[in-house]
Design a protein that fits this description.
This protein is about 70% helix and about 5% strand. The protein is mainly α.
Length: about 230
């Protein structure tokens, strides 16, 4: 299991894709971080304007980390990293608008977001238990433990898959709202789209890697393709 060429064959391409997309998003973010927006608004100001116009009552706060930006639906807080919160660039505006898009989804009861929120506690348990169960199951040759581990791992895969429409829709809402509100110029919108497309591809790569790992475990357990050794 530890040095299985089949693992590299199935999961390897997805891992390479993940590495490429991580480089892509960091490169795009840094590139457009150097391009100021004509409106002179910071990421925090853009997010505040979007949620205020929609009457959402969402707070905008600073959080530490690089691209650690996220919307917390439980506490109705939009947290932005320093590079997004403080800066007045195409990157900061795009990322801030994207996370404000999640707040808009929450307000509109966007179904995939509700599914993802419902999966969070299940996913936390699944990711904690899946790997130990799979490792012990394969080492002991216990198909029962392996099957339970696969079930838990499947919850994490499902979360990754459900995340895709949530992220793409948030970006779509972000681009639409900043255009409608006149927060960016036509030229700046093109830059925003490039940053958000790069960010979206990281979620695609993560989902692909999770699905590839699940397929590998199913094959190793003899539940797919008939292989079990």
């Amino acid at each position: 299991m530890f040095f299985d060429p089949m693992y590299l064959l199935i999961v390897g391409p997805a891992i390479v894709l993940s590495m490429i997309t991580q480089f892509w998003v960091q490169s795009a973010f840094k590139k457009f971080s150097r391009v100021p927006v004509a409106a002179g608004l910071s990421g925090a100001e853009v997010a505040e304007r979007i949620v205020a116009q929609a009457g959402l009552g969402v707070r905008v706060e600073r959080v530490q980390g690089f691209l650690s930006d996220h919307y917390d639906p439980t506490h109705r807080v939009l947290r932005l990293s320093p590079n997004v919160f403080d800066r007045r660039s195409i990157s900061s505006v795009g990322v801030a608008a994207h996370d404000a898009g999640h707040a808009l989804q929450h307000a509109k009861n966007y179904l995939p977001l509700q599914w993802r929120s419902a999966l969070v506690p299940i996913t936390k348990v699944g990711t904690t238990l899946a790997w130990p169960l799979l490792l012990i199951g394969f080492l002991l040759g216990s198909l029962g433990l392996v099957k339970v581990g696969i079930i838990f791992f499947s919850a994490a895969v499902l979360f990754q898959v459900v995340t895709l429409p949530v992220e793409f829709d948030a970006s779509r809402r972000a681009v639409a709202v900043i255009q409608q509100m006149g927060l960016v110029t036509t030229t700046e919108v093109a830059g925003v789209k490039k940053v958000l497309t790069a960010a979206a591809m990281t979620y695609v790569a993560a989902a692909a890697a999770s699905i590839a790992q699940l397929l590998y475990f199913l094959m190793r357990a003899g539940l797919l393709g008939g292989r079990r050794d």
